[in-house]
Sequence to fold (111 residues):
Amino acid sequence: MKAKLSNYRQSPRKVRLVADLVRGKQVGEAVIALTHLPKRASAPVKKLIESAIANAVSAGKAKKEDLYIKEIAVDKGVVLKRMRPGAHGRSYPLHKHTSHVRVVLDSHHDA
Fold:
């Protein structure tokens, strides 16, 4: 099952650090790892994974124990362009980056 988080207000470079940590893991392990990770992006990514788990379980596709993170991708979102005051009455650009995070879960078919 899939879930996505759009326009999360943190740069993709920082969110990718968290995504790389959980890629390919069982969902139980991933949720525990994200609970104890001291990164700002860990809470929204954890919530996104839990949403994907709920989507899979409610659709009757798989049990929670069988799910793993098949794919997690962090893409660049819109850039909010703001101005900040500079020296001598000038203004300097300030780019506030956003991220789109996609999660795809799959179940192991070992049987």
Notes: The chain has one domain: 2-107. The first helix runs from residue 12 to 22. The chain has a mean pLDDT of 94. The CA atoms of residues 67 and 107 lie 4 Å apart.
